[in-house]
Design a protein that fits this description.
This protein is mostly helical and about 90 residues long. The protein has a domain of about 50 residues. About 50% of the residues lie in helices and about 0% in strands. The protein contains two helices and no strands. It is elongated and about 60 Å long.
Length: about 90
């Protein structure tokens, strides 16, 4: 199972090299992204401890952090633009 090909590639990949799920991300970068996104998610859960009926702002913070924790990996870091790659 080689990732080298003879045909020309389109996109930002190097000539003669295909990005596959096995060689797309480095382990260190993946761990860093996971830790950051988990911190956002846990911050969202922690903000709920300050929620009262008189103060709705912790819920707004929770929704914002929760949305970022899922939106960043799926859109900015994800492969949403690779539907026609293979």
């Amino acid at each position: 199972m080689s990732s080298k090909i003879n045909a020309s590639n389109e996109g930002s990949a190097k000539q003669g090299y295909v990005r596959t799920p096995q060689n797309e991300n480095k382990l260190g970068g993946t761990i860093v992204v996971f830790v950051i996104m988990m911190a956002l998610f846990l911050g969202a859960v922690y903000s709920l401890s300050f929620l009262t009926l008189g103060n709705p702002w912790p819920m707004a913070v929770c929704l914002g952090l929760f949305a970022l924790a899922f939106w960043i990996p799926q859109t900015i870091l994800g492969r949403s633009d690779s539907a026609g790659e293979h």
